[in-house]
């Protein structure tokens, strides 16, 4: 039995945090919060090497990714951190289906739902370039964009936007993605690694990143061709094909798929 007149919110407010009530989850095994540093600039990585336990990145290829801490020899060498002392997760924004063709078809469907003018406006803000007069079905001309690395240009951007700009620049100039595709992807994945394909293709890609030491864990946000969480009545795409494959592991926590 409870006395409703004696029940009131906790509403705790102290020096370091405030809370309306208790946290309904088990205490972390290490007994304290995990310290995460999100960012991949040299300054951010050096700070993470000295202070953090997890270094979160947003890269689109294995060569550019800071990866697991042992790869970042400069910052971690100067800080004295040892390999294995940190974790290096990377975000993955995938579109998956039973086949690559189905995944591509679903991507096209998602692109149709994105208002093109809004997507282009956002690309203009990210790339700091005039894009509205371009053909949306052609790649952005490289001369419209400033190459990454110009200090006078990057100094005008928020620090958190510099590395993300480089991701979008590579997508436009190296991958030759059309403006329409970039507008849709910019809204959908915000510059994160965004592979599109079958369950096995994406799983093997995750394995390749791990084995190349580009990351040691993945933060995975995906959309499946069997339906979105909002708007389309369909089962969770993780409930069928991916699980049997992902659960047949070969010795490490990434749950590498078994190759027959």
List the helices and strands and how they pair.
Elements: E1 12-13, E2 18-19, E3 36-38, H1 42-51, E4 54-56, H2 73-79, E5 89-97, H3 100-113, H4 116-127, H5 151-154, H6 159-173, H7 179-189, E6 196-198, H8 199-211, E7 217-224, H9 242-246
Parallel strand pairs: 3-4, 5-6, 5-7
Antiparallel strand pairs: 1-2
Account of the 3D structure:
The protein has 260 residues and is of the alpha/beta class. It folds into two domains: 36-96 and 197-246, no CATH class; 105-189, no CATH class. The protein has helices at 42-51, 73-79, 100-113, 116-127, 151-154, 159-173, 179-189, 199-211, 242-246; strands at 12-13, 18-19, 36-38, 54-56, 89-97, 196-198, 217-224. Strands 6-5-7 form a three-stranded parallel beta sheet, sandwiched between helices. The longest helix is centred in the middle third of the chain and has 15 residues, at 159-173. Residues 68-80 and 224-260 have low confidence and may be disordered.
Count of individual helical segments: 9
The averaged pLDDT comes out at 71
- Alpha-carbon distance between the termini? 59 Å
Q: What is the string of SSEs from the N terminus onward? A: EEEHEHEHHHHHEHEH
Count of the separate structural domains? 2
- Are there runs of 5+ residues with pLDDT below 50, and where? 68-80, 224-260
Which sequence of strands runs across the widest sheet? 6-5-7
Helical fraction equals 25-40%
Bulk shape: globular
Relative strand content? 5-15%
Rg result: 22 Å
Structural class of the helices, strands and pairings? Answer: alpha/beta
Strand count, sense and closure of the main sheet? 3 strands, parallel
SS elements, strand count: 7
